[in-house]
């Protein structure tokens, strides 16, 4: 069921015409229709608003055609994936797009249709017929395989984020990585528990040692030609805050604190499924930040893999610690591009809200490529600065670095500056401070876990690493 909902219908199936109209184009569309259609649309009050749908009956009472509205120009700027809303309203059946979409909008709307098929059903028992949704034939000229890969990868990300921590700890995250590796013939190595100290990953060990669920570093490699691309994702499977325990209200969504790991795994799946010519590496420090007698303490000084010392002034700022060891490991190979993704700071959400994650990079070409890609892929991002004058805020005096500067100012920027200290050696570095959660349902995005930034990266990276890495010698489009 889930596989069919994330794929297009067979082209040899009979299908119902689906006309997409805007509030402004409806009148012109109606001019070309027979009187019975014009009368039906007028009598039903359909106006082409965003997400509005209408079925026009034929003489026998079946569906002759369907209409889906995109709304006004202002509504289209505010609401992406409008066709996803139509999928949840139309009767079951197979449809084909019969016109009304600009060519550059077809891919977005087709992806929105597939994404609207997602629901997290693992713990719900419902009859299969309740899951029945309409299907869509791939529009002519669309790279249907690519859109289906994007949808399937996003479903993986959402499933991982939505799964409760009782069912998704470091071990289960490892199982997911191993399954991806088996499917795409990648290699995985894992460093566990006290071996993290032996192999010089002291920060990952310090964060995860208080939990009964063994901390580990997951290291996936795929591909043997092309530039080195390394993805690092925060894999804190649950975050109590440690001894600086979170209040209950703040702890409620902490199953999503591995959203960075979930997102880089989705991106890695896209890259492998599309057959990119890169030497891909995915590093995920998978831990649970728990409370016990062995938990790290406020005031502890830790030494990272690269030798830098860190004063722990808040055990709830643990994500940057586990990422620091992983980034230092990544840089030992001097990757051509190093991407870090993490559900890192509440400050990012205060500044930009849940739908607009910030990214940080010193590379102007990468920043420009990401800005263009975010618009083209309807995957919003906003660049924030590595503001050098704030470097002093992460320097406590007793150690090289402070994991939680006092004062509460510029929290997302200081976290990014902290991570940059461990990314030295990468040719290009970008950090994404994502939220990974859709707080209210929207077209193509039900309430719950959501990927952010992966599609934009998929489009932008060939501009930076060379178009030859992508199939056909071009950036994915």
Quick overview:
The chain has 477 residues and is α/β, with parallel strands linked by helices. The chain is built from 17 helices and 19 strands. The chain has helices at 2-5, 26-31, 35-44, 73-78, 82-87, 103-115, 144-162, 170-184, 195-198, 202-208, 248-251, 259-274, 319-331, 346-352, 364-376, 411-420, 454-465; strands spanning 16-21, 53-57, 63-69, 94-97, 135-136, 187-192, 216-222, 228-233, 235-239, 279-289, 301-303, 309-311, 337-342, 358-361, 382-384, 401-402, 429-433, 437-438, 448-449.
Descriptive overview:
By secondary structure, the protein is an alpha/beta fold. The chain folds into two domains: 2-142, Leucine Aminopeptidase, subunit E, domain 1 (3-Layer(aba) Sandwich); 146-473, Zn peptidases (Aminopeptidase). 35% of the residues lie in helices and 19% in strands. The chain has 17 helices and 19 strands. It has helices at 2-5, 26-31, 35-44, 73-78, 82-87, 103-115, 144-162, 170-184, 195-198, 202-208, 248-251, 259-274, 319-331, 346-352, 364-376, 411-420, 454-465, and strands spanning 16-21, 53-57, 63-69, 94-97, 135-136, 187-192, 216-222, 228-233, 235-239, 279-289, 301-303, 309-311, 337-342, 358-361, 382-384, 401-402, 429-433, 437-438, 448-449. Strands 6, 7, 8, 9, 10, 13, 14, 15 and 17 form a nine-stranded mixed beta sheet that branches. A five-stranded mixed beta sheet has the order 2-3-1-4-5. A three-stranded mixed beta sheet has the order 11-12-16, covered by helices on one side. Helix 7 packs antiparallel against helix 12 (259-274), helix 10 (202-208) packs antiparallel against helix 13 (319-331) and helix 12 packs across helix 17 (454-465). The relative contact order is 0.12.
